Amino acid sequence: MSTSRIFAFSLLATLAFVLPANITARAPDLGDLTEDEALSLVERATLAPVYSKCTTPNTVAITFDDGPYTWNTDIVNTLKQYNAKGTFFVNGNNYECIYSTANEQRLKTAYKAGHQIASHTYSYSLVSVKSEMTKTDTALTKILGVKPAFVRPPYGNYNTASREVAAANGQAIVIWDFDSGDSVGKTVQQSETEYQNVANQKPSTILALNHETYETTARQVLPYALKTLKAKGYKFVTVADCLGGKNPYLTKTTAGKRDSLLLDFGCSLHITDYVT
Known about the structure:
Blueprint: H1 3-15, H2 21-24, H3 35-46, E1 50-51, E2 59-67, H4 72-81, E3 86-90, H5 101-112, E4 116-119, H6 129-144, E5 146-148, E6 150-151, H7 160-168, E7 172-174, E8 178-179, H8 188-201, E9 205-211, H9 215-230, E10 235-236, H10 239-242, E11 249-252, E12 257-258, H11 267-270, E13 274-275
Parallel strand pairs: 1-7, 2-3, 2-9, 2-10, 3-4, 6-7, 8-9
Antiparallel strand pairs: 5-11, 12-13
């Protein structure tokens, strides 16, 4: 037996409790697995899955990065006009502090409207990956009472290390298969053309990247995209639903309450502004 196979089976023995039921049911017969099968099972147990496409036919998952920000509620209102659900991948302290009174309200408004809230890490940094993920989880637990099941790393960049951290945190990584181009300087017309082109191609599903930090995205591109894609018969759903109805949150609990005596001094203080 090769060293890699021995190592794989050793890990399987200690990780069996996190493997899917159909795998653990085979536990007495693990010796029958090939080396590649054993290594594949170890990978599945230790690395977070990465989703770049939806799996539910005829769905579009419209996603928005880098918030919460000024145009969040505009986006929520536009989505409502088209009976659409979106997914917001939010930061803790990127464009603005997640703990500000205004952003707390924006998050609550989007969440109560049925949109999915997911993590985009805390300060949009590729350093200290574990801290970047857990600090955003903490913020969302305090503000909304939920821990997100999905995370989108900065720039959509991921590697084995970040997948290991996400897996240990119980989260899956979500990327995209369509980019509106708003964050790389495309004009409104160019972004609208991108949406028109993908609509004409009529793929089975679309997982679209946008950014809520651009007024033009919220007030011009989004209405155009929704109208154009709706005309093609797509249904607008959250990422969790476009992936077959997965749970968008790992846990749900009672949200914290802000201490009304404290003012908005920035993220360094706000993380202690909530009591449970």
